[in-house]
Amino acid sequence: MFYNSTRNSDVKVNSAQAITQGISADGGLFVPEEIPVLTPDEIKAVGEMKYADKAAFVFSKFLTDFTEAEIRYCTDNAYSTKNFETECIAEIAHLFDGTYMLELWHGPTCAFKDMALQILPYFLTTSAKKINLDKKIVILVATSGDTGKAALEGFKDVEGTSILVFYPEDGVSPMQKRQMKTQEGNNVGVCALKGNFDDCQNGVKAIFTDSEVKKALDDNGMMFSSANSINWGRLVPQIVYYISAYAELVKDGEIALGEKVNIVVPTGNFGNILAAYYAKHMGIPVNKLICASNINNVLTDFINTGVYDRNRQFYATVSPSMDILISSNLERLLYIMTDKNDKLINEWFGKLAAEGKYEVSDDVKAKLLDEFSAGYCDDEHTKAAIHEIYEKYSYTCDTHTAVAVKVYEDYKKSTGDTTKTIIASTASPYKFSAAVLESLEGKNSDISEYDKVDRIAELSKLPVPAALADLKNKPERFGDVIAKDDQKSYVLGTLGI
Ligand SMILES: *Cc1c(COP(=O)(O)O)cnc(C)c1O
To answer: SS3 of 375, please?
Structure first.
């Protein structure tokens, strides 16, 4: 299996190269040349496997330059009860008849990002070895809150790597901020940026492709890589849990093999829902992929009209991990939907960079509407949804997941579609305690973050994850705040070059 760049389809690299590089030198994202297809029997068999085996099976289709032993080394280290609270790793909860919550937050940082970031360091160090790279790998991360912490946990003290995370100063929850500021490890750095997530991400992307910086790193025996979902090594682990969820539901007799399901994903950077798209095209029978956004609804408009327009107000919401106006992974989807037309991709993403806006062709518009449905939900309705889900089903969900549930309910009302549905539940409610508690109780309480956690525990009967409870006693290590124009000099300064 080889990988092309979305900006140049003549680029052809293997997975070890794609994973170590993170992003193509032309600024494009790496995309597998074709999507491997599973037979119904293979899908059924996945339901009988342990999670690490499921992952190894899926990876063997994409990382064809890895040996079986190399893949097993990665999967066995990442997907064990050493890192995850539950044996099955990706738990399925029944919300109500025919509606299933795929709980992806039982890892060390309590968000779905762990599903990929627990394994990415193994992929990356294995890939580096395979291509005889003897450089130190510097991971630069832009985070809307959850990726940063998950990447820090994944990469802390991993030999041959260091990691530096940028987050928007006022764009993450108090718990997320505390998780990052207290990060342990000898190869980690964390810095707040006066700006929003898009500023963080644009800055990181610009540094990655800055030839002057690249040379400075090169001269010092270092190279950059990415732990954001622009890295294929971040995306491929996310395909596994959709295939797993379908196969588990078949095994449990909830659905028949071959029966279609809907998949609802609370979406920001379009990584998680793109993984669901890959799972569909690998053979998981899907009726609609439902893209749920918060009030930063650039994707809702895009899917419904074919016009991507980021020239709009940016809102800080109670679902901060989705406060994004430039969804990077859309580029991969459009590359596939235009049959690898790198000229069109360059044209559209050039317009996005220059004018903040582009419009796709009519055939792509039709494909978008055929595969996806899209909706959005503001903060008020998000909180109301948390309250209602708790009252009706005794289930406590986080703000991002609540957006997905609400958008799904709107979808059901407007379409009458009764297809069974998997909803991606992307974070533990404890990560967003203030908004969750306010929603559960219907009022704002003036108590500390940790008292809020305790109160949610009383109401929800959900055990508080040990990693979050421990934060209370940890010292803060990282307090730097910089202006957005200072990102490049901060990176060079931190690296000592
Ligand atoms: C990152 C994140 C999302 C958005 O996922 P994308 O892959 O960026 O679309 C949704 N919910 C939570 C809790 C997240 O951390």
So the answer is: strand
Q: Is residue 26 within a helix (H) or strand (E), and if so which, with residue range? A: none
Q: Which ligand 1 atom sits nearest the alpha carbon of residue 271?
A: 7
CA–CA distances in Å: residue 7 to residues 31, 210, 376, 379, 442: 10, 17, 30, 36, 49
Chain-centre distance for alpha carbon 320? 13
CA–centroid distance, residue 371 to ligand 1 (Å): 20
- The pLDDT score that the predictor gives to residue 443 is 93
The DSSP annotation for 261-323 comes to: EEEEEE-SSSHHHHHHHHHHHTT--EEEEEEEE-S--HHHHHHHHSEEE--S-----SSGGG-
> What does the pLDDT look like over 92-106, one tens digit per residue?
999 888 999 999 999
pTM, 2 dp: 0.95
Q: Is 156 a catalytic residue?
A: no
Q: pLDDT category, 201, cuts 50, 70, 90?
A: confident
Among the listed residues 44, 54, 61, 113, the single catalytic one is 113
Element (H, E) at 429: none
β-partners of residue 92 are: 102
Residue in 241, 322, 325, 401 to alter for ligand 1 test, most ligand atoms within 8 A of Cβ = 322
Strand pairing of 99-103 and 91-96?
A: antiparallel
CA of 424 to the centre of ligand 1 (A): 10
Distance between alpha carbon 238 and the CA centroid of its chain, in Å? Answer: 8
Spacing, Cα 493 to ligand 1 middle (Å): 30
